[in-house]
Every structure is written in structure tokens, then in C-alpha cells.
Amino acid sequence: MRTHLASAVLALSLLSQACADARDSLELAPVFTDHMVLQRGQPIEIWGRAEAGVVVGVSLGDAAAVAVTDPLGAWSVELEALDAGGPYELVVGVAGRELSFEDVLIGDVWLCSGQSNMRWQLDQSEGGDAAAAGADLPQVRLFDMQGGLSLAGTWSERQLADASIESGYQAAQWTPCTPRTAASFSGVGYWFGRDLHERTGVTIGLICNAIGGSPIEAWTSLEAMGAETRLPAFVSDPRAWLEQGESTWARSRARQNLGRWLDDPTGALPGHPFLPGFLFDSGIRPLAGLGLRGVIWYQGESNATDEAGAVIDPERYRVAMQTLIANWRRTFAMPDLPFLFVQLPGIERDWAAFREAQRRCLEIPGTGMAVTIDIGDAGDVHPRNKREVGRRLALLAADQVLGLEVVGARSPNPVEFEVEGARVHLRVADDGGGLATTDGAAPRGFELVGDDGTWQPAAATLDGDRIVVISEAVPTPVAARYAFAPLPDCNVVGGTGLPLTPFVEGRVPQ
């Protein structure tokens, strides 16, 4: 209420000198706008800038707080946690000036991040036009952070001069979800948010900051990567990355854009969305302090294979994911921040080992993985079925994050491996009612290997949550794998229809 704000400011007004500079310089972080969603059940941090040494008062509903700006003019306040609800008015003021933000709702805020498959618009997706036409969802709010730097051609001198952390994204506004705003929003994000809202009835706020083509090193701070000795030194050195970076498509595009500077590399290196640390500084660090329910992440295409199609070290990506998740959890001061990610789908690219590295990321506490091996496109890195990707992420969120105990929310995944003579016995985690095949035929996609290191096709039988695998060509197996191919012919699903996770289990001969 405005009376709370006035009382708060007056209580400390003697600490500041009211002046035109204080009034004119008052501002909030860009993520705070009309129609915003703030996270329920967590203390609410509001922050911004004003003249140094002035008192700033903030009120939201019946809650109010004050802060004194530091010598650089920065300020922040923490308001008490609120249950889902609203609308509220957020009022921020200094002596002589007041800013107000209308239609503020309290609900669940999700960050939708990654590269082009997360950025892929709803109206570009399968069934997206019809979905957008019916997307009148006032309790779903969208904050669409579109990239601010072109990735086309060789940048002009003006573009090079303007390329900075501050210009990495265009200005954004929170908007209610309407047919117009939904059409250009992330298809995965839209379906995820819509499904969660329908399941919970809680307001959903979606922030999308995905950038097409971006490698994982762009999303992680230089400090975090530099401290991780298992990562190569060039991932924390933007200049070295331009020469040595293994994400060769992203590196070659960055070199093309920065060509004029590279011809005469004097002065500071201009910013670029693919450089190590850039998107962290431009798109993650500015959100630090915001309450989140969790993250959904769809990225990896730029790190799976190089421009010639050769496999990039999958283990390195697993370490990079560990580093990124820990980095973001520290940044948001949420050590248990839920992090749900998409395993790359089937395609005629050599991604099998990369998908296994992604599966191993499930060992990181608080993570979940949506398996999409069955909904890829043989020749297109942008499969159009974003609805199912969003649905699978929403199942994970409902079950794993919100605790709604959704049956069969996760793809079955092996949890036990045992060799008994010529047979491999596997048990999978699946609460959906038992394994089956999509077509009623025998299970396909299994292989066994012995100490000779030659993988051979294998037969499998299913019994509830158990799989028995055998191959006459491998009398003494030491490891088993499933769906380990670019575009595998595989047909096993859990009781609710989610695909069996591609896997490698056992002792693989080197």
C-alpha cells in the first residue's frame, strides 16, 4: 500500500538529502515491470539503482521495507515471502519520486534457457499456430529476452563498438500470455508453462533467455570455468577460445562476426554471444536475486560434434554441465535450484556418446532429464514437436519439483546391472506400470560387448521393471547398451509411454 511506502520513507528521510538527482536516477532492475510474476514461498528481493546515499522505500501489498543506497547507488530490499496470489501493486520511491508497477502476481517463476531449440518459437512448431490462437492465458506471464546482437555476416565498425555485455539482450517486458505474445515465445517454454498451470492452477512466470547456437561455455562464468581443472584453459579465456574452441560451428560464426577486429586485434575484444562467459554476464548475472522455482535447459547441439561432424569429448560436457549448474546455484543463492534438461533427440549425427554424458548428469542432485530419443528428426537439428518436449519437462517439474507424485513422470532408467553367465540383467526405475514396446514386437535397440570390445546386437525380454539381454555372439558379456546410435531403431517404453532412456551400463572395454 502507498501508506506503507510513505511511512517507510519518512522514517528514514533524515538520512538522505532529497534532490533532483535522486528523483531522476531512481530505477529498478529491468526484470521488474508491470504484469511481472514473483516467486511464491520465498523471500522477495527487489533491487535497483538511485543516487548514492538516499533512502529507497519499497512496498508490495502489506509488506514494506527501506534501504539506503551504497556509494555506487545500488540498493536492494528483501520482502517477506508470499503465497500464490495477486494482483498486487509494487511501489518504489525516494523523496520526491515514486515508481509503481501494476498487476503483479505471485506464483512460480521458471527460467527457460539454452540454444535454438529452446528459443524455437511456438508459431514455428508443429501445431503452433493453432496453439497460439487459443493461448489466452492471463495467469501465464512471459518475459522474452531476445538477443540484442546480430549473428549474421561480418560486423561493421559500429556493430563492433556496440557489442558489449549491456547490449547482449534487447529490452523486455513482462506480458500476459495472449495469442500474439505466445506466438513468438519459446514453444518448449509455452507448452511447459501451460501444462504446469493447468495441473496446479498456480500462476506461472516464464523467462526465456535462450540464444541460438550458443555453446555451454558462453553460459558459465569465467571464474567458475577457470576454477575447474578438468576443463581446458581456453574455455575461460575468450581470446584463446577464438583460436582453440572445440565448438567449431560457434567459433567459426564468432570469428566471421568479429572478422574486422580479428584483422586488427587492438584494444579490447568486443563482446559476442558465443564467447565464454558472455551470456552468463549478459543474461544470468543480471537476474541474480530473483526467486526461481527452477530452470529448464535445452542445449548441447553446439557442444556435441564439431563442424565436420566429429565427436567432441562427451566427458568434457558432463564436467561443463556440473560447473554450470553449480555456478548458477551460487549465483541465485539457491544451492538446491532444480535444473531440468532435455537429452538430445535422435538425428543422423553422431550424438550417442553425448546423450550418455547427459544421462550421467542425472548424478547431480536436483536434476531431471526429459528423454526425446523418439521425437527427433533424421535431417533437422530443430525437430518441430515442441509440445511433447514441454510436456515431458512439465511432468518432471510437477513430480520432482512440486511434489505432486505424478505416476510415470520420468523415462525409465537403469538402476541395477548384473551379469549372470551369458545374460545381462537390468532393473530400471519406472513407476508407470512396467515396460513394453511401442509396436508389440520384440524389444529392439540392445547390444552387448565382451572383453574383445566388439559390440553385437542382442535380444531382450521385458518383465515389469526388469530387462534380460542375451547375444549368442557374446558368451561372456561385460557391458550392455541401448539406443546407442545416431538415429536408433528402438521401441521400449515405460508404462505411461515415455521412452526407455538410452544407456550404457557395465564395464566397457577400452
UniProtKB/TrEMBL annotation:
<feature type="domain" description="Sialate O-acetylesterase">
    <location>
        <begin position="108"/>
        <end position="221"/>
    </location>
</feature>
<keyword id="KW-0732">Signal</keyword>
<keyword id="KW-0378">Hydrolase</keyword>
<dbReference type="GO" id="GO:0005975">
    <property type="term" value="P:carbohydrate metabolic process"/>
</dbReference>
<dbReference type="GO" id="GO:0001681">
    <property type="term" value="F:sialate O-acetylesterase activity"/>
</dbReference>
<dbReference type="InterPro" id="IPR039329">
    <property type="entry name" value="SIAE"/>
</dbReference>
<dbReference type="InterPro" id="IPR036514">
    <property type="entry name" value="SGNH_hydro_sf"/>
</dbReference>
<protein>
    <recommendedName>
        <fullName>Sialate O-acetylesterase domain-containing protein</fullName>
    </recommendedName>
</protein>
<feature type="domain" description="Sialate O-acetylesterase">
    <location>
        <begin position="292"/>
        <end position="394"/>
    </location>
</feature>
<feature type="signal peptide">
    <location>
        <begin position="1"/>
        <end position="22"/>
    </location>
</feature>
<dbReference type="InterPro" id="IPR005181">
    <property type="entry name" value="SASA"/>
</dbReference>
<dbReference type="Pfam" id="PF03629">
    <property type="entry name" value="SASA"/>
</dbReference>
